[in-house]
Amino acid sequence: AQKITQTQPGMFVQEKEAVTLDCTYDTSDPSYGLFWYKQPSSGEMIFLIYQGSYDQQNATEGRYSLNFQKARKSANLVISASQLGDSAMYFCAMRVPGAQKLVFGQGTRLTINP
Amino acid sequence: DTGVSQDPRHKITKRGQNVTFRCDPISEHNRLYWYRQTLGQGPEFLTYFQNEAQLEKSRLLSDRFSAERPKGSFSTLEIQRTEQGDSAMYLCASSLGTSFSYEQYFGPGTRLTVT
Fold it and tell me: Of A24, B58, B64, B98, which one's alpha carbon is 20 to 30 angstroms from that of A111?
């Protein structure tokens, strides 16, 4: 079975600072995909970034990057130059071949202070 | 390009009543998913459709829950004889393609409150 663990219930960061949100995962499948989603207070889950287990380089999407450490089974999200609009819940998720569902962690609430 | 839409956005119902939610996926997406999210938790998978075929159901989906996607376009999720434990956000998502690397695009959710 797949499992995602996010150990930071809440993070508080000053605007313009970089922030790292932790995610560790557990699976016995050699192939898998890791996803990060943002959920503002409005409730919609917004896709941020994807990392495949065989990808050689860390994924990047604008201010978002994924620090993928396969041996440690971690997939931390890094947000550079944080903005007030980054305040939201952030979820790490995993999917394996043959399974259609995303398995989510419990999330981290990020608050950006001005 | 319209995203995934869900209706209604909020539903308050009395225990024992039936409720039905609708999801309209992104038009070219052939895969549609339902998730449930309770307060302070991540979404949990309920069921999945490829076109009109319901291919997977979670054990969370008790016999009071039924989902359909009659023409491979929109989907409905019905909960019969609602219980207070059904209070949650119900999220719909859609995706394109068969690879597990394809991201799922989520709708705004339907927040159900059972009183």
Answer: A24
